[in-house]
Specification:
The protein is of the alpha/beta class. The protein is built from 16 helices and 20 strands.
Length: 505
């Protein structure tokens, strides 16, 4: 059993704020979700706030909860400006206030007499931590606590530049006792969520502001990804892309898994190189994955088999990992486009312009052409535009022609205007001469392009409709069950609408 307990107690809520009042507020929030809490004393803006907070903490008492005190100095990646002696002073104060654990950097331990903190009245249990914010260092096959009882557990937090880096930390967690594995950075995020499954004693999640790169919130860690409940039997799915941080696919798919009580989890994989991800598929136990830009076309050469329609389109957005490890590709973007547009206007006989020529554009072009539309392709890459137009029997439309050409509908399939760079539009007002504009981007729900179209009195279609339709189709392919569509739609739309509300100052 872990030194920190079992189940949800292994999720460690990170409390970090500049004032004692805000720290106290975060502690109350944290304890509603878990009984293990890290107190980042180094985030408090001065010694007065640290004193004020620890007085409050001592009055409330720790009860049956487990509290870890951290006062990390700047040289070790924290925010504390004081020296080693002041760091130890505040850890001693934390013990007097009721903290059972302290997190001590290896840099501090090495400078202590006999490299031991046991002579100081710091919290009784010591988590010795090693941080590398640049890379994942070379690692031994296993980690054990220092001899002589200098620490009770060891933590290694390292930046994962590749998925292989994060896998090395997970393997270390499998082979070590009383060890905490923390892959940092967006690339390391999936491994961070799976760390408890692999044997890490803790997984960290902030109550409010992230305190390290690649963190997910406490709410997401516990309720969306259910990190504490994942086991070796849990089926892993995910989305691969670059970028991928904007994706609401984890919310969509995990909502479905939870509603249907399936032992499965869906994770976001930032993938720069496909080979890096594909090598990790068996290691992570991945059973299927969504593919987004820029990998929808390049994934084709890595597949063992592909459905005929996806092969004809030349783009795949859904991959099934079969029992023997082979990869089967298909395309649900095609269905998503049709479902989103056929409710809005008559496709047969219409003239539709697609702006872009990537994987999503290819699915849209084939869907519209098969639906009887005359398809025009306008793209920055002239060669790609010509190839796609030829494949669907359409036409290439030069960008300059958009000022005068008329269309029934215009679809944007480029990422221009996608969160977080959502204040720009791929097309201007004088380039929208049509009855309807659809943006395949779904975050934000109302892109700058759609706002411009609406101001001109043009009907608009958000990419959310396509996103939901293609995602639900994926979910049903993987699970072979009927998706809880209403719940999945509600979860995504609620998230988008909350994002669109003005933030209070």
């Amino acid at each position: 059993m872990s030194l920190f307990g079992t189940g949800v107690r292994r999720i460690c809520a990170v409390v970090a704020a500049s004032t004692a009042a805000e720290m106290a507020k975060q502690v109350r929030v944290a304890l509603r979700e878990t009984r293990t809490v890290e107190l980042r004393l180094d985030w408090l803006r001065n010694d007065s706030e640290r004193t004020r907070f620890l007085r409050w903490f001592k009055r409330r008492g720790s009860g049956t909860s487990c509290f870890l005190a951290t006062c990390r100095r700047r040289e070790a990646g924290g925010r504390f400006d004081g020296g080693m002696d002041r760091e130890l002073y505040w850890l001693i104060q934390a013990r007097e206030a009721g903290c059972q654990w302290c997190d001590l950097e290896v840099e501090t331990l090495r400078r202590l007499p006999d490299q031991s903190v046991r002579e100081y009245a710091v919290p009784r249990r010591v988590l010795l931590s090693v941080h590398d914010f640049e890379r994942t260092p070379a690692l031994h096959k296993s980690v054990s606590t220092p001899t002589g009882g200098a620490a009770d557990a060891v933590k290694i937090a390292a930046e994962a530049r590749t998925i292989a880096d994060s896998m090395r930390l997970l393997k270390l967690a499998r082979r070590s006792r009383n060890f905490v594995a923390v892959p940092m950075g967006e690339v390391g995020l999936p491994a961070r969520i799976l760390a408890l499954r692999e044997g890490s004693a803790l997984a960290y999640a902030p109550v409010a502001e992230a305190t390290a790169p690649g963190q997910v919130s406490l709410q997401e860690m516990k309720h969306l990804y259910r990190a504490h409940a994942l086991t070796g039997r849990t089926r892993v799915y995910g989305v691969i892309g670059d970028p991928v941080g904007h994706s609401l696919s984890p919310l969509l798919h995990n909502t479905g898994f939870i509603a249907r009580r399936l032992d499965a989890v869906y994770l976001p994989f930032l993938v720069h190189r496909l080979a890096d991800f594909l090598a990790a598929v068996p290691e992570f136990g991945i059973h299927g994955f969504s593919v987004t830009l820029p990998h929808k076309q390049t994934i084709l050469k890595h597949l063992n088999e592909c459905e005929p329609l996806a092969a004809e389109i030349g783009a795949v957005n859904t991959v099934v990992v079969r029992g023997d490890g082979s990869l089967y590709g298909c395309n649900t973007d095609y269905v998503g486009v049709l479902r989103a547009l056929e409710k809005k206007f008559r496709i047969r006989g219409s003239r539709v312009l697609i702006f872009g020529a990537g994987g999503s554009a290819r699915a849209a072009a084939f869907a519209l052409a098969r639906g009887g539309a005359v398809v025009g392709i306008c793209a920055r890459r002239e060669k790609a535009a010509k190839e796609l137009a030829r494949a669907v029997g359409g036409e290439v439309v030069p960008h300059r022609a958009l000022r005068t050409e008329l269309f029934d509908a215009i679809l944007n399939s480029t990422p221009i205007g996608m969160y977080p760079r959502d204040g720009i539009s791929p097309l201007g007002p004088n380039e929208l001469h049509c009855r309807l504009v659809m943006d395949l981007i779904y975050r934000p729900e109302r892109t700058q392009l759609l706002k411009i179209a609406a101001r001109k009195g043009i009907a608009t279609v958000s990419g959310i409709d396509m996103f939901l339709a293609q995602g639900i189709a994926q979910w049903e392919i993987w699970t072979e069950k009927r998706a809880p569509e209403a719940l999945m739609w509600r979860a995504v739309r609620t998230a988008l609408r909350a994002e669109g509300k003005p933030r209070s100052s």
